[in-house]
Design a protein that fits this description.
The protein is an alpha+beta fold and about 300 residues long. Helix content is about 30%, strand content about 20%. It has a domain of about 110 residues: Glucose Permease (Domain IIA) (Distorted Sandwich), CATH 2.70.70.
Length: about 300
């Protein structure tokens, strides 16, 4: 074997061994991916505090009105999204999509895929490079075998960007909540307080038959009727993507579904429909979950 052939084979063996060694894989650069990942992270962070599932399976006793109320939605939107022509007619076992953008058949499949860790594979195999034996050739080999891990500065920038996206999402949610100005829905004595342990989902205010009930905050009437058991004549107002308020046991309802109302606007007359006495049962719901109205209302000033 000639010396030149020997050195060529030796250099080839060194290059291949360097590429195959642990932690020495050829670098893979994907351009245009960082922005997409940041966008997906932002969308995920905006839903991190949202407990609601993508869809709900109808159980015995459910109505589309109660499902919408319990998950903080307008039942009209759920009906349209799910192709339900008559909101009064749904079936046990029927799957109701709660969020737009994904079909029911693919929602669970996508969630399963997202749960699996992703693995990045090289798009190209390492290239074989031949060099004649010399000091310059050895320098080229060292470049080929150089470290491929990102430097600390790049990692720090990526982590900072990720944190900024999460903080922006949290700030948006807080800003949305802070924008609501709440007021007392009626005047009277507080006779029932909120209790999560006792399943008391709101407060009760006693009053006189026919006294005014007003909107606690500006919003849109998304329900007006007697279709939810235990609430009598009920009004539900949606204030934003996060909050609903409910006004139950009214004697007479003065607003219609789809109507926009202002804070303090008269919406009903107090009554005792489906109740043991004349009173207003008032609830505040955040993403469909009942929260203590006393934390939002100026009760001490009533």
């Amino acid at each position: 074997m000639k010396p030149n052939q020997f050195f060529t084979l030796l250099l080839m063996a060194v290059v291949l061994a360097g590429c195959a060694s642990k932690g020495r894989h050829a670098p893979v650069i994907e351009r245009g991916v960082t922005g997409k990942k940041s966008e997906e992270t932002g969308k995920k962070s905006s839903r991190e505090k949202d407990w609601r599932p993508e869809s709900y399976v109808v159980q015995k006793g459910d109505t589309l009105y109660s499902i919408a109320f319990n998950y903080g939605f307008d039942y009209h939107e759920l009906a349209e999204m799910n192709g339900i022509k008559d909101p009064r007619v749904i079936s046990i076992g029927q799957e109701i999509r709660l969020f737009p953008g994904r079909s029911l058949s693919t929602a669970r499949a996508n969630e399963a895929v997202e749960a699996k860790p992703s693995v990045s594979l090289p798009k190209e195999q390492p290239k074989l490079v031949k060099y004649a034996y010399s000091e310059a050739a050895l320098a080229q080999i060292e470049k080929v075998q150089g470290p491929t891990k990102p430097d600390a500065t790049s990692v720090a920038k990526l982590e900072t960007k990720h944190e900024t996206v999460e903080e922006t999402g949290a700030t948006a949610n807080e800003g949305e909540e802070a924008a609501i100005e709440w007021g007392m829905p009626t005047q009277g004595k507080l006779i029932g307080q909120f209790s999560e342990s006792a399943n008391r989902k709101g407060i009760d205010i006693a009053g006189k038959l026919g006294q005014p009930v007003v909107a606690s905050a500006a919003g849109k009437v998304v329900y007006s009727g007697s279709g939810l058991r235990g609430y009598g004549k009920l009004i539900i107002i949606k204030h934003n993507k996060t909050y609903l308020s409910a006004y139950a046991h009214n004697d007479k309802v003065l607003v219609k579904e789809g109507q926009s109302v202002a804070r303090g606007q008269k919406i009903a007359l107090m009554g005792n429909t489906d109740a043991d006495q004349v009173k207003l049962h008032f609830e505040v719901r955040r993403l469909g979950k009942p929260v203590d109205p006393a934390k939002y209302l100026p009760i001490g000033k009533s």
